[in-house]
Amino acid sequence: MTTWEPVIGIEVHVELTTSSKMFCGCAVAFGAEPNTLVCPVCLGLPGALPVTNRRAIEWITAIGLSLNCEISEHSVFHRKNYFYADLPKNYQISQFDLPVCVDGHLDIVVEGTVRRVGIERAHMEEDTGKSIHVGTGGRIHAASSTLLDFNRSGVPLVEIVSRPDMRSAREARVYAQELRSLVAELGVSDARLEEGSIRFDANVSVRPEGAGELGTKVEVKNMNSFRSLERAVAHEIERQVEVLESGGALVQETRHWDEEAGVTHSLRTKEGSSDYRYFAEPDLVPMVFEPEWVEEIRSTLPELPAQRRARYVESGLDADLAGILSDSALELRLIYEEAVSAGAPLKAAANWLTGEVMGWLRRTATDSSVIALTGGQLAELLGMIEEGTVSSSAAKDVLDGVLAGEGSPREVAAGRDLVQISDVSALESAVEEALAANPDAVASFRSGETKVVGFLVGQVMRATEGRADPKLVSEMITSRLGE
Fold first, then answer.
1. Is 0.85 topped by the overall pTM?
2. Of 139, 374, 448, 464, which residue is 20 to 30 A from 79 by alpha carbon distance?
């Protein structure tokens, strides 16, 4: 029986958040009224000439350097010719054989194993308009009409093409997530899947395990979440294997992922590069990338997600916690860094941020950009737990108060009467009352059942509304029962 090996490559389109479009001065904005951010250039009107957006070229260079690519010394724009309603010029300004970035790689970690995915190229192009199909489900085959919005036409678009180095649907998902995190960290795109500012197309084929030649490639589109990407690739692998094992033949085509049905549907046979009749764009001059300019861009790169995770692990965090913290919002990472600098234990700081703080943000639907917590306050709270000023459970209430803007941890603890009771004389009556009210537990302890101490401590904690020092209470009960 044949064992099949999946072969997967991913094409990623990233819309850049420059203030203006790729070849004109129209604004880049999501959600504007249809066809209000347009001009003769991005509408392809006769006589309108494009001008290259310098910031977009700087940002694709930053993307390429972050993906360990070589930056070409010379790069040229081409016309990619095809005819579709959302393409006003009937060609797209893109790149063909002289892209900006070539021959890079991105390392991903899948189930504890590092996998290197090659980056074939990253090139610069302009986005198309948006087709809105009016009718059931918003799909073209069921539409009664189609509306066109050209606000997106001409938006700077970077296409990042991986090599076919992934071997499972899970690897494809992890690659997409890592690439999205990298782009977001660079600040060149908001990288929002739900708004289409980052889009993934998967090229999927299968071949007998050990074979050198690639199988027939199928491109899968319309995956608007990482979960959809993983499901679509897994389904396509299964579909191709079923076709081949039943004696059928695969065709090179583009297929549409149907999220609701969990299957792919054929859209069209896949074009080759010759179908697009590429030729150099005559209205744009070639670009020359001087080494000094490239190094200047390199010097502006931030710490990337993989570098940050490695730093967190080296400092003492486990890999899972380092990954969660590294991928969290910038505001939370800054709180963590400030808390550790202020003396907070790094594991405790990371656990509270990824647990209690993130949980509070979700419960209250609060954006992390307006969070009312500083690193110094988190360090103060953890210090209060360590010194016994508040219990771990009471500290959660203190945190709620700080996040609600009630003041510093010590102010909230005092205001909410959550300061832990650590005075023996103040706890004696509560301990005596707990022992008197639970004679069976006292008898069990004296017969050797020491576990009942925890029960008795709980009774004291309840009586003091959680403000008693549980360690001190345990010592007092054990001492009292040992008399």
1. no
2. 139
